[in-house]
Structures
1.
Amino acid sequence: MKYQNPVVPGYFPDPSITTDGNKFYLVNSTFQYFPGVTLFESDDLINWNMIGHVLTRESQLPLEHAYRSGGIYAPTIRYNNGRFYMITTNVSDGGNFLVYTDDIYGEWSEPVWVHQQGIDPSLLFADDKCYFVGNGTDENGKNGIFVSEIIPETGEPVTKPVCVWHGTGGRFIEGPHLYKIGNYYYLMCAEGGTEYGHMEVYARGTSPYGPFESYAKNPFLTNRNMGASEIQGVGHADLVQDKNGNWWMVHLAFRQIKLYMQHHITGRETYLVPVTFDEDGWFSAGTHEENREEGIVLTEMETDRLPEIEQQVDFHYTFGNTSVGKEWSYMRKPLTENILYDAAAEKVTMKGTDASINDAFGAPAFLAIRQRQHNGKTSVKISLKSGVAGLAVYMDENYHYDMFLRKTDNGTELVKRFVIGPAKAEDQIIPMGDINEATVSIGIGRLNYSFSAVIDGKEIDMGEAINWPLSTESAGGFVGVLFALFAEPESEAVFTEFVSDQTLK
């Protein structure tokens, strides 16, 4: 069959995967957004259903000090003896910690802190032991991967961390995972930075503490030399085995807005490639082309390991078929008193806080859903009671395009605003008089966003704007674009008739 990459499109980076022998489970990093660590379930590795999030309580997820792209970094999910474990780093508050649950659909434990250096921690359960794996700096100041044994329910160390591998020489060795497969321990990492030089490498040994022998064909998976590919930034991978004994790998990558245009707006996404072991126990991944030793990743992958499966690539979102805590996210903390989400009535009532969407910290009245494809349209009807409220296509507080209603002494007005770094401009202001509601729409294109509104039955074309100023290459950080409903301080509004249609083509 043929399947489309990414298998989880949109800002769902740093994937980790596990299986309980029946279904597959996937987690992703979430940075400054609440709730934290997206959690997906799949029967077939191709279609992924969002269960919700792992970190759903403020006691698990303090984000008060989380700057943009701070907060929760790469998680790892593992299953062992009927229990699921998730380990990650809150880089803004506390460091490395794990949580666990015996019910994947239920609540997870309070944080168990693991006081060891580094980010992107992972766990290996093998031979009745639990190994903590993370990156860090050795006594000589050299970056490497460290392994120690811990007690997972308490985080207490059993052994001291040992630097077991320094990688292959690429910068930013990170995202380590350790596996025991057969007689070998495989240590897999990302190098090169999570941009255009990203790559995946591995080594193996007969002990979790090494010594580790590097694979002769490292990097074994990368698109770093694939200039004529939409997919770039391949790396940060995790292995899983299916019921038929086949091995697979999920990894992050991103889609450029157009071939040879080095900008991406949907963030780092989750991809899937097959993995093959040779007779000597070394593995390769992805697709292989003539004159290339490394595996590469294609937009359309072909495999004989799966039956014909209809893959979901288009998304239709409304207030009725989505929910807060699944598709919708807050900024830094839940605002259940300021934001009332009524799925039955398909409306959201929002009151402003003391924070704005232009602020670097704080929790504005903000509810956002990811942009997942490069075509479509998002629209919502806004009934303004006071202040300022609208719809934004949002990368971060310094990079967003907005359509909002604003109360003035002369009545209500509709405003289109561009915020691009230090440049902030109200591009259009349309007086609405005594009319207090309008439907605003943002069209999604490969290279542009388009803006329109309906006021008192009259449709108004408000032009276009190029999308690359909202790209990661322009804005920086590790997230992707979201569509955000917002209300500014001392504001109140009701949002209805929300529709976001996002299509692959």
Note: Helices lie at 472-475.
2.
Amino acid sequence: MDIYWHWLVVIYLFLGGLGAGAYLTSFAAEMGWLGENSSLRRVGYYIGGPIVGIGTLLLVFDLGQGFYKPWLLWRLVTNLNSVMTWGTIILAVFIAVGMLKGFLTFINRPVPSVVTWSGVVLAIATAGYTGFLISVIGAIPFWDSAIIPVIFFISALSTGLSITVLLSSIIEKASSENKGREDLTHIILIAAELVAVVAFVGIMASGVNGLVAQKSAILLINGKYALYFWGIFIGLGLIFPLAVYAVQYLRHRATEATVAVGGNADGQMEGPRQKQSLLTMITDFSVLMGGFALRALVIFAALPIWDGIKIG
């Protein structure tokens, strides 16, 4: 079986969603949706544009002739009927706006609201485009589903939140004051992604999109990619983080309840907090690993319609 898209495309799809999700995470923190005085208000802005820029550069590498004949890249922005053209424009503008927002945030200068909100719209478009790009390729029945952009968008938000949490403790050197809110957000995103993935794989395995798409689904469920699908993506990328965040959220709520009735948790939580911090880092990294595995599996398990399988 030949693989028609390779690792550079997988990395690009991952970084595109990751950078967009990081920007949206800091925006949500800035708006107060992740709690007051969130430590996540800045880091996502720092890394959003650069991460997408790196991913886009890798895409140019994959195009091959873009480096030998760079004038050919002009065609990417001239055909407005092409999904690739619109994606190129969205990526380019988001990179510019994201870097401007990140730079102004870094030097503590006021950022015009039009810059911030333009970045939000472009980040949403970028996160959605990474899934929409492959869903419109009719020659690959496994990708021919409106669920793929949804899965990729949710994964972008989830991985963006995780990378922002991981880096904020290093760059901002501040612990989160809204751990419960962040854990709840993680729970919602991972649960939504899990439901969407189950629905997608179930639909493909049922044969609704034909035997080629069904064979791709079987490669994930009990075929050559089953270990990666169940072990890395579902197990380590979704189930493990979901369980950890759920336990941490319940413990946080229990601590809040104790304080509310007059208890004092100070002096007793220092050790558990240190251990929980390390566990949180491991869990956030697990989310990132799952997000990368998702895109690799969707790309590599997809069989083209001319794979030799008889339809009908």
Note: Residues 226-260 form the longest helix (35 residues).
3.
Amino acid sequence: MTDKSPFALYVRATNQVAFNVSDALGFSVEMSALAVSLFEEGPDTMQVQALYSTRKQAEQALLSLSLSSSIETMIEQLPDIDWVEKSQRGLPPVKAGRFWIYGSHDKELIPKNIKWPVEINAGLAFGTGHHGTTKGCLLELDRLLEEGFFPKKVLDLGCGAGTLAIATAKALKLNIIATDIDSDAVEVTLFNARINNVSKFIKCYKLDGVKNSKLQKNTFDLIFANILSGPLIKLSEGIVDILCPNGKVILSGILDDQSELVSRAFINCGLEIEKKSSISGWTSITGRKIK
């Protein structure tokens, strides 16, 4: 084993805690991870794996999480191989309607009948398409397009790796605003836009929420908000405010048992819920702004 071998931080917890941990390790910790992965271990349990160059970085990341002592954690050094590449190769392509989300290692395997292939590699920013939240949004986008809904102004709020913004740009060839609270996500989104040849369509900003000049001067026909239930509820009024009349929003990052709370918050702000769907315990909600 050599000094180049990365150190893996493992956290095993309930779905919501694990999802929060993966988000924090990807975005909030000063010592940036080489890669962050989230694995399902059963109906209610998930495991987070974050890779770091040194044990000290892994230990600092763990301390920053301030986890309960009842949550299982472990740090170990891994064999000396390219674990970032391995983590990417371990993620199979994802088909979501007419979208195909793949890593660079699978570029030669894109089926010929796929209309919109999107290259997204595993890394720091969440939202590669392999989690039920992002896949749920893509399936809803595909359904809306099939039904003849063609928005002219689109916002990807909490863009992560930029998967939704890039997929929409590929499908519609129109300008899209993407935002995230983390600068890493902005960099990753812009990089992914370049490798997918849609840079000219995507503007990405580091922004918190919707109460800012970049968004308040606009109204949108379609908004993606793939974040978490708490922030969604908090932002519900602001999100509906910047939707055009009859505009649609696709909400995700919602555990199945939280979907009613999120739905109610948006209904109270003037949204009509059109559809709910669930993938692996995570609900996606599509709604329309009532005139």
Note: The mean pLDDT is 85.
